[in-house]
């Protein structure tokens, strides 16, 4: 049966591939690493098509019979919603280093330092960009990108085409997972933030005991020096917790797909 109206036998297979690519492409738009502005759109579309071919080979996907129909638009919207949800969960976890950088940067006095983030193309704190790059490298070293692709493929079993609308409980779990971002960000900044808090207490006591002392000339260099040393000492522990953040993000994605 012709789908696009040209009478070609390849049309049903092409329409099925395009329909499958909706969920995969939506996941790549929202997911970290894949959504980076440095990755060309052509690469993302090609990768979505390649994974779509594998999905069609492993799962019997039956697309809607008609393209320009209200039921088809609803099916495409549901597929896009599932893909966005899969990628957005990981994006939530990747926001934790930005919160940690805001806490540490404001205490160190380098909150004004910013640079262009290669992930989203916007200006972000320099310390946050450093944390994001480290988290991205850990994500790739733990094969997180392969786990994401695996979850997308498995989602066609748990959320089949035509019955892939997310339930209210699943949407609630995604919203509540956003609270983990603030928790993870504060825990990530805890080692350095605690030392800087102690330093601010000492500087506050000095300002009360010696009001004539120019603390602006002493406090900022001291905070910067203590912050750099604290980052160097605490970074192994922060790296371990970044691995926990990646693990929690992948576990939340798996929970969405497999329940």
Automatic annotation (TrEMBL):
Keywords: Bacterial flagellum, Cell membrane, Cell projection, Cilium, Flagellum, Membrane, Transmembrane, Transmembrane helix. InterPro entries: FliR (IPR006303), T3SS_IM_R (IPR002010). Its main location: other. One of its GO terms (biological process) is protein targeting. GO terms for cellular component: bacterial-type flagellum basal body; plasma membrane. The chain crosses the membrane at residues 14-34, 41-61, 67-90, 97-116, 128-153, 174-203, 215-235. Pfam families: Bac_export_1. It is a multi-pass membrane protein. It is found in: Bacterial flagellum basal body; Cell membrane. The keyword Mitochondrion does not apply. This is Flagellar biosynthesis protein FliR. It comes from hydrothermal vent metagenome.
């Amino acid at each position: 049966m012709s789908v696009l109206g040209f009478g070609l036998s390849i049309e049903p297979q092409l329409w099925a591939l395009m329909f499958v690519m909706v969920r995969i492409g939506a996941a790549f738009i929202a997911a970290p690493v894949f959504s980076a502005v440095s990755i060309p759109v052509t690469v993302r579309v090609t990768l979505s098509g390649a994974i779509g071919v594998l999905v069609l080979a492993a799962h019997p996907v039956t697309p809607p019979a008609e393209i320009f129909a209200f039921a088809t638009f609803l099916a495409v919207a549901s597929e896009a919603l599932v893909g966005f949800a899969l990628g957005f969960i990981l994006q939530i976890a990747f926001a934790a280093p930005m919160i940690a950088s805001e806490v540490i940067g404001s205490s160190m006095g380098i909150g004004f330092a910013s640079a262009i983030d290669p992930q989203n193309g916007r200006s972000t704190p320099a310390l946050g960009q450093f944390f994001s790059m480290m988290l991205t490298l850990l994500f790739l070293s733990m094969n997180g990108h392969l786990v994401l692709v695996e979850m997308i493929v498995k989602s066609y079993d748990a959320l089949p085409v035509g019955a892939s609308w997310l339930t209210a409980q699943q949407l609630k779990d995604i919203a509540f997972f956003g609270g983990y971002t603030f928790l993870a960000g504060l825990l990530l900044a805890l080692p350095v933030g605690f030392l800087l808090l102690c330093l601010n207490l000492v500087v506050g006591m000095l300002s009360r005991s010696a009001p004539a002392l120019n603390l602006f000339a002493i406090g900022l260099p001291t905070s910067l020096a203590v912050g750099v040393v604290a980052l160097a000492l605490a970074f192994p522990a922060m790296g371990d917790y970044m691995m926990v953040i990646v693990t929690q993000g992948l576990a939340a994605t798996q929970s969405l797909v497999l329940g």
